[in-house]
Amino acid sequence: MTNVDDLCAFSVTICSLGADCIAMFTLLFIEDDEAIRTALRLVLEDEGYEVAVADDGETGIKMFGQIDPDLVLLDLRLPDISGFEVCRAIRRTSITPVIMVTAQTDTSDLVNGFDAGADDYVTKPVIPKELAARIRAALRRTQTTEPSPSNAKSLNKIGDVEIDRNMSIVRKNGLEVALTKTEYRLLVEFADHPGMVLSRDQLLERVWGYEYLGDSRLVDAHVRRLRVKIETQPDEPTMIVTVRGMGYRLLK
Q1: CA distance linking residue 252 with residue 129, whole number of Å
Q2: Which helix (H) or strand (E) holds 3?
């Protein structure tokens, strides 16, 4: 059970327009545990977020369509349908960031969550500072566009994959590929450093904005998901390859 006193110490800074102006973000929290749901909602509202809550998956999907939140906090273990199904339903219509909130630490659960389209995760009992950092980073990624290196082209060709930076879309064999914002940023990071080995720590810092919070499983699961979408044979990648003991490299 999450410690309510710890949650009440949770502080999130969301002023992005100056000291006197608060940027309001709307969060949707789908969680069946009433104590956790109430504690987090009160804390987040005190810090300036608008927070809508749902206690099961079907209600969460319905509310998502109604309020169009900036970010979703999603429990994986819900009483009606699984959080994986909820995430897949969200991903059919939206690239809104989804952070999984789960009591599970099993790698297969995390991989399944990322395969369903989640961007990040936190485990129960929730550590307030960690959740705060992950929410800030996820919202920052959606609100800002990282400048490309001065030598970056507006169109990048990687085999039969094309990155259109002006439109922020990716095509494979001329057909658009549905990437989440995190997957797109990950692919662009590789495209900006062709032939270079990028460590997991470098990718966590550059793509997720984490210097110390990251987990290598986060990077590995997203690389795996990206390969499924852009590689002809994901299990035998020819574009994004693993460099054993070091990280990943985009082949030129």
Answers
A1: 40
A2: none
**Residue 107 phi/psi, 5° resolution?**
-60, -40
The rounded distance, in Å, linking the Cα atoms of 119 and 168 is 18
With left for phi above 0 and alpha for psi between -120 and 50, is residue 68 left, alpha or beta?
left
Alpha helices in 31-146 (DSSP H): 34-46, 57-67, 83-91, 107-116, 128-143
Query: Which residues face 242 on adjacent strands?
Result: 248
Between CA 61 and CA 70 the distance in angstroms is: 14
Greatest Cα-to-Cα distance within the chain, rounded to the nearest angstrom? 53
Read off the tokens for 229.
């979408």
Q: Please report the domains of the chain, with CATH numbers, ordered by start residue.
A: 4-143 (3.40.50.2300), 155-250 (1.10.10.10)
Q: Is the dihedral of CA 189, 207, 143, 100 positive or negative?
A: positive
**9: amino acid identity, one letter:** A
Phi, psi of 247 (to 5 degrees): 155, -135
Distance (Å) of CA 235 to CA 79, 152, 203, 231, 241: 35, 29, 21, 9, 10
Measured N-to-C along each axis, helices 83-91 and 107-116 cross at an angle, to the nearest 10 degrees, of 30
Mean pLDDT for 45-72 is: 92
Which tens digit of pLDDT belongs to each residue from 153-162?
678 899 899 9
- Does the global pTM surpass 0.85? no
- The helix or strand, by DSSP H or E, that contains position 7, with its residue range, turns out to be helix 4-8
